[in-house]
Amino acid sequence: MLKRSLAWCLLVLLASALAIPGAALAKWPEKPILLMIPWPPGNDPSTIISNAMVNDLSKELGVPVKVINKAGGAGVIATDELVKSTPDGYTFGLLSVGPVVSQVLMGNTPYKSEDLKPLGMLWSSAFTLSCGAALPFKNLKEMSEYGKKNTLKLAHWGLGAVPTLIALNAAKIGGFEWRETAYKDLNALLLTKGDADVATLSTVYVRDYVAKGEVRILAAVLPTRLPDFPDVPTVAEQGFGEAYSIWFGLFAPAKTPDEIAKRFREAFFSAMKTPQIQEAIKNTGVVPHPGTPEAARK
Q1: What is the Cα–Cα distance from 296 to 118, expressed in whole angstroms?
Q2: Smallest Cα–Cα separation from 168: which of 176, 29, 92?
Q3: Which of 143, 167, 191, 201 is in the most buried spot, having the most CB atoms within 10 Å?
Q4: Same structural domain for residues 120 and 251?
């Protein structure tokens, strides 16, 4: 009887300890932390920036931090894996508006937005509508006139991706239809080789090709003009629909302990402020706007 009472007391004490805020944090981290990115590596800005951060993050947290690229399903596959991972603070995700919001609203996901815990917004990708330089149009109005008489091939990340939705809306306003194709590996070579006429590409993918005169940027797919190309008007400025921020944020599974999520967020945002990472952010062309978990949730 005494042994049973002692065992019960130990169980109660253990449960109480686990319930105390900070108890989970005291043991964390004890093993490598995974940062999942739902896009292929290559020139993906988020991958470039995250890979530049892992050394600082590993030093700060005392365990290796590994970037895991898992492309597919317009970001849904990796996001679903993140949602289903154990919420113990060893799996985080750097996700965009597509798999977190638009794909959910379109009914393309096995998860809900509420299954994710937002830790903060990070940056917006400087997306463009770009075309091969040999094509005879320089803006969206001229493109639309051309598209009414000729077939225009659009290359994009997927039908649920925000830049794709903006491109489809622009065609509707312009009075023509795309012949659209989704690509897992979307790059500027599709434009230079003629496999596509127009593509939804971020500036990091097109910058060198624009400099060589092989690609032309038709419009900025952002609410504001692009830092690298301030002379290129936005989709909205050209009268072809609203432009939206293709934002990226830091997320964890919804049930991740708050104290662990806060600690990882602090380490991540601290690393973002270093001169080395600020330079990486500048080089990728993204527009940084780090924010609070509350702002990200909203």
Answers
A1: 6
A2: 176
A3: 201
A4: yes
Question: Residue 285 and residue 248: Cα distance in Å, rounded?
Answer: 13
DSSP 68: E
Asked whether residue 234 carries a pLDDT value surpassing 80, the answer given is yes
The confidence score (pLDDT) of residue 283 equals: 87
Together in a domain, 212 and 261: no
19/218 Cα distance (integer angstroms): 56
Q: Please check whether residue 130 is in contact with residue 216, taking contact to mean a CB–CB distance below 8 angstroms.
A: yes
Q: What is the pLDDT of residues 123-173, one digit of tens each?
A: 998 899 999 999 999 999 999 999 999 999 999 988 878 899 999 999 999
CB-facing half-sphere around the CA of 84: CA atoms within 13 A: 9
- Residue 164: which CATH number? 3.40.190.10
Q: How far apart are the first and last CA of the chain?
A: 54
On the question of a cis peptide bond just before residue 29, with omega within 30 degrees of 0, the verdict is yes
Phi and psi torsions of 232, nearest 5°: -90, 120
Q: How many CA atoms lie within 13 A of 292 on its CB side?
A: 3
153, β-bridge pairs:
179
Task: Kindly give, in sequence order, each residue whose CB lies less than 8 Å from that of residue 239, ignoring residues fewer than 6 positions away.
Answer: 140, 141, 173
In a domain, 168, yes or no: yes
